[in-house]
Target: DNA polymerase IV
Amino acid sequence: MDAFYASVEQRDFPEFRGHPLAVGGSPDGRGVVATASYEARKFGVRSAMSSRQAMQLCPHLLFTPPRFDVYKGVSSHIRTIFKRYTDMIEPLSLDEAYLDVTEDKLKIGSAIEIAKQIKDAIRNELNLTASAGVSTNKFIAKIASDYNKPDGLTFIGPSKIIPFMEALPIDKFFGVGKVTAQKMKGKGIHYGKDLKKYSQEELIRQFGKSGKFYFHIVRGQDNRPVQPNRISKSIGAEDTFETDISDVMVLKTELQNLVLKVERRIDSKAKMGRTVTLKVKFSDFTQITRSYTSIYYINSYADIYAQVEKLFDNLLLDEKKVRLLGVTLSNFYEEDVKKLESNQLSLF
Model:
């Protein structure tokens, strides 16, 4: 989906249409932006940015609180559209999914035509736009879906994969973060063709286990199947910062944003868990994790953040500079959430 939360708000509230809009955060400078409209993105406003910084970039920015129940309802409708064409659906979040249309229900026989029809159905039934990527595997399709936003449809066929990947800027590689991209550029790796010059062994030496991943993706190789019933052992989010951070309040703001992402992801998968884990990597690349396991199952922002904040406050940072923060929820209750909710008295 294109700027999903912001697009839903602009659809439902005419006063937001055509104006720079941030979902999440507030005009008093507190909190962080969850999603920015395309009008706001032109000013450099992006998700995970503090409200204060967003207003500095765009003084006339509008703010609205998120309505997750509404977004979940829209996401459910989108899923019903997908199911008209295939049952092989692997959700990544409320607004993104992989579809395997090798055997499509309607016998259309063209992945491109199926993508067009899905985009049209989303527009006609929900008055929203989506971007689609069509290719032979998940990795290339993911890159293609981001290539021509908003309202895009990009097809990368087998004969086009290698030249496409060779010409792709390293910043655009799905799975290559900002810090890694800068490290690559420092070694003269600016495009896929530069990355392709390195052997798998060299990439592993330079980038650890991820080197094997980089070796294969630059060649367009990804054999992962679409997994409609994938069992997740943990769901989390992490962020590597452009510059190391020692300010506790800034770090807590980053934690709030990470917990927001985790809540969205567990909500889309109908999960509840008991173990919250905080991951911290420092500027010297040392890393620690701290976990807390509750007797209760939790899945809300408030409950997850309460535990994460306790774990964070118990750390002895001593003004250490932090390079990365991560939050995960695990130890899931694997039965249907509706069954769990109907038996809350016996469980809790």
